[in-house]
Design a protein that fits this description.
globular; single chain; Glutaconate Coenzyme A-transferase; three-stranded mixed β-sheet; nine-stranded mixed β-sheet; alpha/beta; 4 helices
Length: 213
């Protein structure tokens, strides 16, 4: 019996949070899969921080253009309305508050919405990337993540142990076990949906954070 959501199912679940007319930034990793699951009845403009607005789904083999990549260096497709610009202009858009949603990965999220997703002390880091700009410049932050680390430790915690990307910034978590929503800075997360075959007992045993049922 399969327990929980796959990466693709989490991406599809996150896509359900998008609304017609939204401008959406997709972070590196699992969030890029969201491009394949945009509902047909809405129009959403996807952004990649390396300088692209208007991202299509991942290409089939005969559509691959090695020069057309997202911020995670994955090959992608363009749309009739796609535009390209410098990284400087891309971050000016982010910092200017022009995006409705950013969908990011996470190493840890605290029960108060703190996000840690840019480094693990002692490991080589190429740079902090754009996450710190995204969490202060975008109206809503959705996190896609595994509920537990490879060693089995909870990633949804009372307090983050890793260096923070931002405080009180996460609005929605979609993990392989459940969906949690935090509607205001002073409120903790509320459980809004359990993944298939996940019991409350299993969720509680896998979680370090306090949340509202």
């Amino acid at each position: 019996m399969n327990i929980g959501w796959t990466r693709e199912q989490r991406a599809a679940r996150a896509a359900k949070e998008l609304k017609d007319g939204y401008y959406v930034n997709l972070g590196i990793g699992m969030p890029t899969l969201v491009a394949n699951y945009i509902p047909d009845d809405i129009e959403v403009t996807l952004h990649s921080e390396n300088g692209m607005l208007g991202i299509g789904p991942f290409p089939y083999e005969d559509q691959v253009d090695p020069d057309l990549i997202n911020a995670g260096k994955q090959t992608i497709t363009e749309l009739p309305n796609t535009s390209y610009f410098s990284s400087q202009n891309s971050f000016a858009m982010i910092r200017g508050g022009h995006f409705n949603v950013s969908i990011l990965g996470a190493m840890e999220v605290s029960q108060e919405g703190d996000l840690a997703n840019w480094m693990i002390p002692g490991k080589m880091v190429k740079g902090m990337g754009g996450a710190m700009d995204l969490v202060v410049g975008v109206k809503k932050i959705i996190v896609l993540m595994d509920h537990n680390s490879k060693s089995g430790k909870p990633k949804f915690k009372r307090n983050c142990d890793l260096p923070l990307t931002g405080r009180h910034v996460v609005n929605l978590i979609v993990s392989d076990l459940a969906v949690f929503e935090r509607k205001s800075p002073e409120r903790r997360f509320r459980l809004v949906e359990l993944a298939p075959n996940v019991s409350i007992d299993h969720l509680l045993a896998s979680t370090d954070a306090e949340f509202i049922f």
